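#structure-requests
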Amino acid sequence: MAATDREDRLAALGAERVDHRFKGLPPDAEGLTVAELAAQRRDLFTGGFSTPVLTLSAESVEHNLALLETYAERHGLAFAPHGKTSMAPQLFARQVERGAWGITLAMPHQVRVARAFGTERIFLANELVDAAALRWIAGELSRDPSFRFICYVDSVRGVELMDEALRGSARPVDVVVELAAGEGARTGVRTEAECADVADAVARVGTLRLVGVAGYEGEVPRADPARVRAYLERLVSLAVDFDKAGRFSGLDEIVVSAGGSAWFDSVAEAFAGIPELTLPVLKLLRSGAYVSHDSGHYRKLTPFNRVPSEGALQPAFRLWAQVVSRPSPEQAFVNAGKRDAAYDLDLPSAEVVRDAATGEVRPASGISVTGLSDQHGWLRTAEGVSLSVGDWVGMGLSHPCTVFDKWGLIPVVERDGGVSDYIRTYF
């Protein structure tokens, strides 16, 4: 897809009409286009937005994009951030603009979204055996010579199913053998001998082309630095052994890929130790949660905690809800619950309160979120804490992958409170 076509498709998102599909947006904006509403640059608190409303900090998103771009460059890594985190083509485009090699995805429908907005390089971190999806991808490869697609294989049977679906296709599908992170891990080939069997199966068919090896260190059982490093060394050794066996002949480069959002420092260290092979190596990191970061799970696990000299990510999410009930001095309820906030890893955390009477924003000291119902958040307030019905509570969230999917259009808020953009998601 030509660059102008990609730009046109992204720009067309601004022509979408604001209506009942998008929660939290001002009711009086119905009928405006997204671009028209963004141009008004309404204030989040006084511009008619209704609660609950999820926001992204413009400054924090930009900071995080720049930080990972610099990190990848510093460590000699290519970067294919996992797009399943946000499923937001606008963010995909910004990630590519900030140096990403391409976008990682997990499911065929996610690939279709990315392709609809012109993503030219896609890494599918799954073995793909769906015949209809494979035929569609074969069609995309035939239609667009610039499209690069790589996916996992982790079984001989998977290779057979892929071959059956792809016979007659114009271009082979590039694959990497996925090495499992250990017994009890998620997907992947369990032993190096079985990896060789899968590679042999790929070599026997003309519809697939083996281009490297990959894995996910986040699935290492009882993960700690030593266990993660041992797994990554196995992955590097597998690439070396495959290269020595001549399995990568005829290629321009060898792909070695890993990297979630919790151990990418270990990936950088292990990949720095890849010896010289017969071909250049594309060291492909796939961390995805960085773009929004979070206020819980990844704030605790991010590698930047271990290497603070490299910088620090900033939580970009804030969920605003209003106090709708204050039944006792120790308890309050806000109008945001499981439909609005992630809760699979951590509960939201109360960060700030905006006083409904004065407009003052203050820290949410003495306020904690103790539970979520479908549409309510349960708050516990310490003795003497001032919190009134109508006040807005700004909450930090944990686990970006289960935050983005609850919101179809997310306001991007500048430091001064003005909403300057809206991020469209496709789940």
